[in-house]
Amino acid sequence: MENPAESNGNSTGSFLTHHSRPIRSDDVLCTPSFEKDIAIVMQGPVVNEDDFTYETIKLYRKSFPNAKIVLSTWEGEVRSNLVRIADLGVVVLVNRKPAYPGIANVNMQLVSTMSGLTWAADQGCSFCLKTRTDMRIYDSKALTYFINLLSVFPVVGDNSSQKNRIIFLSANTRKYRIYSTSDLTVFGSTDDMLKYWNPPEEAPGNPIIPEDCPIKFWSQFRYAEARFFSYYMEKIGYELDFSIAQYWKFLAERFIVVDTSSVDAFWRKYDFHLENRYKNYGAERNSHILSFHDWLNLYASRDNLPRPDERIQMMPWNSLIPQDYLL
Fold first, then answer.
1. Which tens digit of pLDDT belongs to each residue from 29-59?
2. How far apart are CA 254 and CA 235, in angstroms?
3. Integer angstrom CA distances of residue 186 from 42, 143, 192
4. CA-wise closest residue to 248 among 178, 312, 318, 148
5. How far apart, in Å, are the Cα atoms of 225 and each of 12, 107, 212, 283?
């Protein structure tokens, strides 16, 4: 019988691959990791399709038995669903929604994340994994991996305002859209995370920029994930110049970006069946995802970082980058 991936590949001129993950936690065989002093903060509305949030928590209970798990969600959720989740040994926090959700629900994320992080701090947890109710990490060694990364890569320079680096997934972390690091799943010391996730709430009136505007506007208006990153850097003492060069320097010295695949993370949203949809084998675009090897190259050259062409962020989103703009 002909392999469908091979036949499809022949017709499209591409090799197609397939990745199947179990829906139910009982179908995942894992070797648990026993890292202590860590809280897993899951924020957002309960995803009932495929029992996704419930099954994710069941998996985390099995993979990370020593971790404290908190679900930070909203008033209006079905009470029986929350009781069922609480019965897994999870703390459930029910928050009042902010009056203004913010563009891309940034205020919703701020409120629910801070509620969970504050609970974790009160429990004395030294580290937190902030994730979402529509995300799932399948790799049971992910927390060990994150702790080891923080040990191997300390903050460069003065660490009086930041204990450890903060770790982001590559999914939605952009190379050229400045201060645009993924807000999907983030790991760090609890003290650092409390600073990172607590910018001023976005007030009504922030304009929605058209798609043909320069991508720099996204960061200057501090939309979505750029809001958290930019206000955090100011909070720990930096003055922003909204340049790609500064963004890369911050990443090299104070953060880590890991490949989403390295912890087998799955985001059940948008075109999730096209898992590597941001991978591009053609000319580079200014929407380029920043991978672990991109980050490691920045880290390795941190004393003599390359100077990117700042014109890249003056082009509209997803523009092809002219060859003479690239290093």
1. 999 999 999 999 999 999 999 999 999 999 9
2. 14
3. 11, 11, 11
4. 178
5. 35, 11, 20, 26
Instruction: Write down the pTM of the prediction.
Output: 0.95
- Whether the CB-CB separation of 136 and 24 falls below 8 Å is answered with no
Task: State the average pLDDT for the chain.
Answer: 94
Q: Within its chain, how far is the Cα of 199 from the centroid?
A: 17
Report the C-alpha gap between 86 and 77 in whole angstroms.
13
126 in Cβ contact with 104 (< 8 Å) = no
Phi, psi of 267 (to 5 degrees): -110, 110
57/70 Cα distance (integer angstroms) = 9
Model confidence pLDDT, tens digit, residues 180-216:
999 999 999 999 999 999 999 999 988 888 888 999 9
Domain 31-325 has CATH 3.90.550: yes
pLDDT tens-digit map of 63-100? 999 999 999 999 999 999 999 999 999 999 999 999 99
| C-alpha–C-alpha distance, residues 59 and 62, integer Å | 5
The whole-angstrom separation of Cα 314 and Cα 321 is 11
Buried b (16+ CB within 10 A) or exposed e, 81-103: bbebbeeeebbbbebeebeebbb
* Torsion sign (Cα): 269, 113, 190, 246: positive
Q: Which of 136, 119, 117 is nearest to 47 (CA)?
A: 136
303 pLDDT more than 50 = yes
Mean pLDDT of 109-130: 98
Determine the distance from the C-alpha atom of residue 22 to the mean position of all C-alpha atoms in its chain, rounded to a whole number: 22
Q: What is the pLDDT of residue 211?
A: 83
- Placement of tokens 């490691």 in the chain: 296
How many Cα atoms sit within 13 Å of 209 on the Cβ side? Answer: 16
Q: Which helix (H) or strand (E) holds 69?
A: strand 68-74
Q: Where are the beta strands (DSSP E) in 170-238?
A: 186-189
